[in-house]
């Protein structure tokens, strides 16, 4: 098996204390987080309502870590420039929410951000095949989006392996690198299997926020990632 890119841990603000978001971001980055995952829900595409560009802009001065914006909204294109201006580094969206997936990916890149495509548990990976040249990130949902604290859906592991195979074929043929991220139910007790299946970016919400020691949790997650590398190497 191919060696995986360096792991990135992205705590999800959906599980943070909204009354003290700036402090939460600073603390979790100081504890070893690589990215900040910013979930945007519109109570239309998904059944919940969360944060918008103004919150992203308010948080930007609190950290130099990349802000990884996951748009669970419809339509998508009107929000892309707003989040780019607010300081987002990565913007990903669901193909079902865009009238023209290729154009939306190009729009994100044109605004200076890395572009990602998000796959719900029932969304086929075939969407990837037609836009690989515009992808910087693929995000697999391991829960149905809308709420934090859900349990990991086991068949996501097989889907991760399939996505990793697609990405590896692409890069072997000379294509750009593409991060493979997973979001939903990522915990210290399953991150090794998730890493072994091919993920290199891990969104963790309730596994980190609300815990007494952020650094200890992130260190334990990294130990699990190392175990996943060992499992993958032995396969």
Secondary-structure blueprint of this entry?
Elements: E1 8-11, H1 21-30, E2 36-41, H2 53-59, E3 67-72, H3 80-86, E4 90-93, H4 101-110, E5 114-119, H5 126-129, E6 137-141, H6 156-172, E7 179-183, H7 191-197, E8 201-204, H8 214-234
Parallel strand pairs: 1-8, 2-3, 3-4, 4-5, 5-6, 6-7, 7-8
Helix pairs in contact: 2-3, 7-8
Core attributes:
about 240 residues; alpha/beta; TIM Barrel; eight-stranded parallel beta sheet; 8 helices; about 15% strand
Shape: globular
Q: Which CATH architecture would you pick? A: Alpha-Beta Barrel
What is the count of distinct domains?
Answer: 1
Uncertain spans, ≥5 residues at pLDDT below 50? none
Mean pLDDT: 95
CATH class: Alpha Beta
First-residue to last-residue Cα separation: 8 Å
In spatial order, strands of the major sheet run 1-8-7-6-5-4-3-2
Q: Roughly what percent helix? A: 25-40%
- Kindly state the number of beta strands: 8
Along the chain, the helix and strand elements come as EHEHEHEHEHEHEHEH
| Beta-strand fraction estimate | 15-25%
Strand count, sense and closure of the main sheet?
Answer: 8 strands, parallel
SS element count, helices: 8
CATH superfamily: Aldolase class I
Q: Within the CATH hierarchy, at the fold level, what is the topology?
A: TIM Barrel
């Amino acid at each position: 098996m191919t060696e995986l890119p360096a792991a990135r841990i992205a705590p999800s603000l959906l599980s943070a204390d909204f009354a003290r978001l700036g402090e939460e971001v600073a603390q979790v980055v100081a504890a070893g987080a690589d990215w900040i995952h910013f979930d945007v829900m519109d109570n239309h595409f998904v059944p919940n309502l969360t944060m918008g560009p103004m919150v992203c802009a308010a948080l930007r001065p609190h950290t130099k870590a990349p802000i990884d914006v996951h748009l669970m909204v419809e339509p998508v294109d009107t929000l892309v420039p707003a989040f780019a201006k607010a300081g987002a580094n990565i913007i990903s969206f669901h193909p079902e929410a865009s009238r023209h997936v290729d154009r939306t990916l190009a729009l994100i890149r044109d605004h200076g951000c890395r572009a990602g495509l998000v796959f719900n548990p029932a969304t086929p990976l075939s969407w990837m095949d037609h836009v690989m040249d515009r992808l910087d990130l693929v995000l697999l949902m391991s829960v149905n989006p809308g709420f934090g604290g859900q349990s990991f859906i086991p068949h996501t592991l097989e889907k991760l392996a399939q996505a990793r195979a697609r990405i590896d074929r692409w890069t072997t043929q000379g294509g750009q690198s593409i991060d493979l991220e997973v979001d939903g139910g990522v915990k210290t007790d399953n991150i090794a299997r998730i890493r072994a299946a091919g993920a290199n970016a891990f969104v963790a919400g309730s596994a980190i926020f609300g815990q007494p020691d952020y650094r200890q949790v992130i260190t334990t997650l990294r130990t699990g990632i190392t175990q996943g590398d060992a499992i993958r190497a032995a396969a």
